[in-house]
């Protein structure tokens, strides 16, 4: 009678048998190398940013960078106050978030709680197509359609402003909010919905008072990720927001965001080795800190509001 072997014993017996054993040993190493690519890339980017940013601050006092209200990099009397660029970025991001969150969550609620399977299979891919449209197309859409439309309603609005790119960036991040939030809502067990309905709740009450709170972790994480995407958007603001750093709270005039300034310098407006050239690394490092902060917030939100089923 043959002795019965456990699965672990069978695995041990098969180890080291010819080429199969060699491949089994090679695969983990190969996968580790592949996984290390993203880590090494991040380290390389961070080292580059830090090195060039330190060079910039060796020339320009960090106190001017942090506390100066004006950003006039190309002036004969240059000033490097990052707050003008930060404020321009926050204006556009605020408008985009204000527009995208209600629309995205409304679409997610409909797809999760009200749409039939047929309707969901049609609408969700269409929504996700918006995420695949090149941002340069969104930029020209903002410049040639949205801005003239807004100016026909609001004549005082400038040709370059915060509102038009903000709305278009909002359209761009709607699929991210809608898709991720719908996934979070769909993961709520059906038994919870049926229990609420059995207690006399309406469909709307179940959606807003049961499903929405239960999926709050995923919903908030989707919003934070969408805001991060809006902060880092480049082409839309470069085309439709303008190139005039503005530290006021006006939404109707030309502004410049952090990414917009980087594009302006990177296209050849500054000579290599000048203060302006190194300033793009300081601005890029500031943008990196914003994105890193948003990632930390996303992770905290996910852990803080996670529901276990």
UniProtKB/TrEMBL annotation:
Subcellular location: Cell membrane; Membrane
GO molecular function, one term: phosphate transmembrane transporter activity
Membrane topology according to the record: Multi-pass membrane protein
PROSITE patterns assigned to the protein according to its UniProt record, in alphabetical order: ABC_TM1
GO cellular component, one term: plasma membrane
Keywords annotated in UniProt: Cell membrane, Ion transport, Membrane, Nickel, Nickel transport, Phosphate transport, Transmembrane, Transmembrane helix, Transport
A Gene Ontology BP annotation from the UniProt entry: nickel cation transport
Domain of life assignment: Bacteria
Keyword Transport among UniProt keywords: yes
Start and end residues of each ABC transmembrane type-1 domain: 86-298
Cross-referenced Pfam families: BPD_transp_1
Transmembrane regions: 30-60, 80-105, 126-146, 166-185, 206-227, 276-297
Gene3D superfamilies named in the record: MetI-like
Protein family according to the UniProt entry: Belongs to the binding-protein-dependent transport system permease family. CysTW subfamily.
Role this protein plays: Part of the binding-protein-dependent transport system for phosphate; probably responsible for the translocation of the substrate across the membrane.
PANTHER family reported in the protein's UniProt record: PHOSPHATE TRANSPORT SYSTEM PERMEASE, PHOSPHATE TRANSPORT SYSTEM PERMEASE PROTEIN
Name of the protein described by the UniProt record: Phosphate transport system permease protein
GN (gene name): pstC
